[in-house]
Amino acid sequence: MNENVVVSADRLADHLGEVRVVDVRDAWEYDGIGHVPGAVNVPFDSFRDEESDAPGTLPGEDAWAELLGEAGIAADDTVVAYDDTHGVFAARFLVTAEAYGHTDLHLLDGDYSSWMREHETSDEAPEVEPTTYEVREPEHSPFVDHEEVEAAIDDPDSVLVDTRDDWEYEEGHLPGARLLDWKELVDEETRGLKPREELEAILADHGVTPDKRVVLYCNTARRISHTYVVLASLGYDDVGFYEGSLTDWEAVGGPIETSSESSE
Which UniProt keywords apply (predicted)? Predict the structure, then answer.
């Protein structure tokens, strides 16, 4: 991803005919509440593996290719994704796409509720011509395993970031992890990201600075997807994405802290 990963509603409205817009809400929301004109519906649950030992993880290359092909998306398309939850579910879609080699990926700044305030909506699904979606090897993968996370814990040049709620953090977190609830980066009024200067100040207050290697985790990799996109938009270029997150860490017997001292 790059610094242009987040796009404004106004910019999207000006370029609707040039991009593929993906709505990751449930089908009943897409059909019943309406959607961005021309958007295709790829519900969140459709691109998560819920049957493996690590629920919520990547769906697999074949499943992903079939899903996007049925949605009429090609590997070279410019894709803009949105949801109605400040972008956290849409961000997971983008991270999944990046994992399978898609490069031209963007998050709508805000969500459907904010889009509705000033822009046109539609209740008609577009006609979709299926494609043969080509999964590619990504040029760079941010994914890290538990061994790399373990190494980051003792690395003074790395910062481990827990993006969950404070009560989850207090119940148990990885040793030395800083607490940064992903919602701290969201403006409740606009439903999009806070201004760049404010984002940078919040991150710095949590010890998350561009000179550090940043390693993100949550429970099942949904919430870290949003933080990952935010960091990409700010130009952070050394970010580790712990796909297995706390689910994997506990499965391999990784140590857990229960105090809140590391959030300070």
Answer: Repeat
Residue 77 backbone dihedrals phi, psi, to 5 degrees: -70, 150
Considering the domain architecture, whether residues 158 and 87 belong to the same structural domain is answered as: no
Give the residue numbers spanning the domain of 215: 146-263
- Return the CATH number at 109: 3.40.250.10
* Local structure of 159: helix, strand or coil: strand
Q: What is the pLDDT of residues 25-75, one digit of tens each?
A: 999 999 999 999 999 999 999 998 766 555 567 999 999 999 999 999 999
Is-contact 48 57, C-beta < 8 A? yes
For 246, list phi and psi in degrees, rounded to 5.
-65, -30
Neighbours of 173 (CB within 10 A): 24
Task: Round the CA-based radius of gyration of the chain to a whole number and report it.
Answer: 18
In a domain, 134, yes or no: no
CB 19 within 8 A of CB 247: no
Number of structural domains the chain divides into: 2
CA dihedral 22, 24, 29, 31 (to 10 degrees): 40
> Structure pTM?
0.94
15 assigned to some structural domain: yes
Span 77-114, pLDDT tens digits: 999 999 999 999 999 999 999 999 999 999 999 999 99
How many alpha carbons lie under 13 Å from residue 247 in its C-beta half-sphere?
Answer: 15
Helices vs strands, H then E, count in the chain: 10, 9
75 and 160 housed in the same domain: no
